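User: I'll paste a sequence; please echo it back and then give the predicted structure.

Assistant: Echoing your sequence first, then the prediction.
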Amino acid sequence: MRINSKPSAIFIIYTIILYSFWSLLELYLKAKIEIDEFTKEVYIKCILWLIPAILIHFIFSNHMFIEKEEMYLLNKKCWIVVPIILLFTIYIMISEYLIDGKLMINESFGISTIIEVLSIAIGEEMVFRGLFLNAILKDKKKYLAVFINSLMFLAIHFPVWIQSGTFISSFADGGFIIVLLLSCIFSFAFIKTKSIWTAIFLHFWWDLLLFIF
């Protein structure tokens, strides 16, 4: 089934608004009006990312690859997150040990960190897997859809990399490849299980490990 003109227009408009406002926020507004990370990642992301993505998905659910009746459920295929979680944990712990020579829990880690990480995972996965990938999977081959979605996911990181002065280094040291690979993993987990919760939990776990260490 092809997405008709009305849903397509809504997706395009929302994409433009999201990328434009998020770039403006990261590059100018955040410093100008002194918005802290918690406010940005929890409150603003909920308003700009999560709520619109849920509304658009519910309204145009029948035009998407995975409809609302299935996407918000857990099923037996969701067990595939277990080996991926183990791989994520082993990779990050070994990486941190090789870099620092030891494993130490970040002193700033706490409840607020967990809330922030959870908000990031829910908001970003609802937009990039639950909405964007879910929409283009209708007309595109799965691998092409995942590739396009990964490029979109990479691009949303550009403003914060530019603002923090790490844009060039993120490409020079191959950090951008990690973002692309993670996006592919989240996408294929979403496609395989047809549940948004697998992508959310994998995203949450990866970011949580980074915050912990």
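The chain is about 75% helix and 0% strand. Residues 25 and 31 are 8 Å apart (CA to CA).
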